Amino acid sequence: MAKNVQIAEVKSLLRPSKVYVPLASTNSKYYDLFVEVGDLVLVGEKIAERYGKQRTPIFSSVSGKVAGIESMEYYSGILVDHMVIENDRKENAVEGKPLVGIETAKNIQRKIEEMGVRGLDQSGLYTRFDFTRTIKHVIVNAVFQNQAFLSVENDLFFDEIDEVIEGMQLLKKAALSQITILIDHDLHTKRFTEAGFDVVKVKAKVNTAWHYNAIKKVTKKEVPYNLMDAQILFTPIHSCKAIYDAVKLGKPVTHARMVMMCADLDASTAFDVKLGTHIKDIMTDLGKEYNEASSIFTGSVLNGFTMKTNNFSVNEHISSIGVVMDEVNESVCIKCGLCNDICPVEILPQNIMDAEMRTIETRLYEYSIDKCIECGLCSYTCPSEINVLEWVRRAKRRVSRG
Ligand code: SF4
Ligand code: SF4
């Protein structure tokens, strides 16, 4: 994957001919539909509601006509229904309904839920907004998730800084907790501290498990994979802009800024895209064609999800997509032990992979698999280019199924 590429320019892809909006998710495949094939919809119109622990509203990102439902890959690799909407490119939108009345914790929480903002979490340790749980620490990550591999100009991911700061104030009220912001530069430090937030500077470029160590530093305790179990809410900074839009403008998230990282391109590229834009449209815009040897991952270079196909669209949880045009030369494990040595929670990923490969379930219970924070360092360090994390994830699923 490209390293030290500076991204300072944003391309716009806000007029795709169709969008593909996921109706289900990793945790829930059931939903209610509020529109039918042939109906006309507006930007920000509620088109469906997903079941789950909480019901999550789903909104159209374009105005146009509902064309049908297609089964496509979701970003974590499963197949889910997507609503296909033909974009009329008129951008006719539903009028926003901001929060009226006092900004109490409950009122802000309700508005955030009403607008379907669940936290624009990505791969790794990020948490969803769950205000039914006690929250003792809110940590906002203002460092681009792949900054260790790709240099992104500081303002690229939070250029609407006034709205972001207001969104953080709202999050602070909603979570009833102080906020700590992780940064890797000094650009907005003064603004953040003047607004009353704690700021911790991290070195994302030298420490590849930096977020794990930074959270430990802030909370002064061990960090489990499910941060909510330790009463920690960890969210990327663009979630705060989404909170601002939800509460102050009464609008759901309909577009996103994401980075396409292509190993054989001169430079990787940032895009403003409509949610639901198909990956093929983005590749076409880059003048690239996916072939059988290509592989795609979403999220972090270290611990993102490897997609099984190129039939997926951008959703609010994806801020990076990596495309490797040549086949990955994964070879056999040489038992060098590097992955075991590097694991920050010391759970022997090579041994877990070995037990999972042979489906020796009893052995899996000997390892503390649930301690895995999915940092991806085991895969990153492997000289045989084995996706060790993927094996550990499979083992985790097997153990959690019991
Ligand atoms: S097993 Fe791999 S992904 Fe999990 S914590 Fe250890 S190094 Fe990180
Ligand atoms: S780093 Fe790779 S080759 Fe070495 S023990 Fe781990 S899986 Fe095997």
Determine the number of helices (DSSP H or I, runs of at least 4 residues).
Answer: 11
Over all CA atoms, what is the radius of gyration? 21 Å
The amount of beta strand, in percent, is 15-25%
The order of strands across the largest sheet is 2-16-15-19-17-18
Tell me about the biggest sheet?
6 strands, mixed
- Between the first and last Cα atoms, what is the distance in angstroms? 37 Å
How helix-rich are the residues, as a percent range?
10-25%
Order of helices and strands: EEEEEEEEEHEEHEHEHEHEEHEEEHHHHH
- Small molecules (ligands, ions, cofactors) in the structure: iron/sulfur cluster
The chain-level mean pLDDT equals 88
Number of domain modules: 3
Shape: globular
- Which consecutive residue ranges, at least 5 long each, have pLDDT under 50? none
Q: Structural class from helices and strands?
A: alpha/beta
Number of strands: 19
Give a verbal description of the structure.
This protein is an alpha/beta fold and 402 residues long. The chain has 3 domains: 6-96 and 252-324, no CATH class; 105-249, Rossmann fold (3-Layer(aba) Sandwich); 338-401, no CATH class. The chain contains 11 helices and 19 strands. The strands form 5 sheets. Strands 2-16-15-19-17-18 form a 6-stranded mixed sheet, with no helix packed on it. A 4-stranded antiparallel sheet has the order 3-9-8-5, with no helix packed on it. A 4-stranded parallel sheet has the order 13-12-10-14, sandwiched between helices. A hairpin with a 6-residue loop joins strand 17 and strand 18 (305-306). Helix 1 packs across helix 2. The longest helix has 15 residues, at 161-175. The radius of gyration is 21 Å and the shape is globular. 44% of the residues are buried. The mean pLDDT is 88. Bound molecules: iron/sulfur cluster (2 copies). Residues 342-345, 347, 349, 372-378, 388-389, 392 line the site of one iron/sulfur cluster (SF4).
